[in-house]
Design brief:
alpha+beta, Umud Fragment, subunit A, 8-stranded antiparallel beta sheet, 5-stranded antiparallel beta sheet, 4 helices, rod-shaped
């Protein structure tokens, strides 16, 4: 098709403009300086032959929004690119996993452990003290009145007789030699030692023929035999014997209300638990024994 000459008359009816949406095709061949010029393309890059023009990013977003609005599902995220749950990354701690304890919790745990150690040590020390050093006993009867009253608590020193001999006048706790059921220990006063002669006559105690002074007795308190004792000379109102080796004679301070060596004879020193040296209960009666 030949190009119209410059200044050629246009078709009647005025300017002829191509329909909206259509671009004018350039004529084949060169028609002047602007012949064959390609009009600029707006909104996207120029299409190559055989390829469809790509929509702009804004247009793509609009299309996706329209497709979701009519029921289409949004495109699935690839498994490898899945977003972390609750905004947590790979290094974030998982709920329920143990992390470092806060300072207050660590301090509370430390205090609890310290108290537990203290209690265990205290219990162990108490057991050691009870087994080898001291023990508290309750006075169950009035056999040692007025020195010890019913329900007095006394501290007994258990180690002493491992270091030295029993002394006359000591108030001692010893294993019950079978006097009364349910009673493990008795408490009495030592009045005669091994190798001495023990005698009861005229209501008093005599050691090696000499009357024993007993200021711990109530005024008017007398001592009389209670039962025949093996190895002794027993009479109605008197008795006489020599204290065997390794034993002692014990009597209660309340002579009329005491089951003592006048019933069961001498006590083995090995059966002596310890010496009572202090009253700790009740508070108004605290003091030495």
């Amino acid at each position: 098709m030949a190009c119209p000459a410059a200044g050629a008359a246009r078709a009647p009816g005025g300017d002829h403009r191509p329909p909206r949406g259509h671009r004018p095709r350039s004529a084949s061949g060169n028609c002047g300086a602007d012949a064959g010029a390609i009009p600029p393309v707006t909104g996207s890059a120029a299409s190559r032959p055989g390829e469809s023009a790509e929509p702009s990013p804004l247009e793509s977003a609009r299309r996706r929004a329209a497709s979701w609005a009519v029921g289409a599902q949004p495109p699935a995220t690839p498994a490898g690119d899945a977003a972390p749950v609750d905004g947590a990354g790979d290094d974030a701690p998982v709920d329920g996993a143990e992390g470092p304890a806060p300072p207050q919790a660590r301090r509370a745990l430390s205090v609890a452990v310290e108290w537990l150690v203290v209690l265990v040590c205290a219990l162990g020390l108490a057991l050691l003290l009870k087994a080898f050093l001291v023990e508290v006993f309750v006075i169950p009867s009035g056999s040692m009145e007025p020195t010890l009253m019913v329900d007095n608590r006394v501290v007994v020193y258990k180690l002493g007789y491992r270091l030295h001999d029993v002394n006359r006048g000591d108030v001692v706790v010893f294993d019950n030699p079978g006097q009364g059921p349910g009673i493990d220990d008795l408490i009495k006063r030592v009045v005669a030692l091994e190798g001495e002669t023990f005698e009861i006559r005229d209501g008093s105690v005599y050691i090696d023929g000499t009357r024993l002074e007993e200021p711990y007795l109530e005024p008017g308190e007398f001592t009389f035999p209670k039962a025949p004792i093996g190895g002794c000379v027993n009479e109605a109102d008197s008795m006489y014997c020599e204290v065997p080796e390794g034993t002692v004679i014990v009597l209660g301070d309340s002579r009329e209300d005491s089951r003592d060596s006048r019933f069961f004879g001498p006590v083995d020193v090995d059966d002596v638990v310890g010496r009572a040296f202090m009253k700790i209960w009740p508070p108004n009666d605290m003091g030495g024994v």
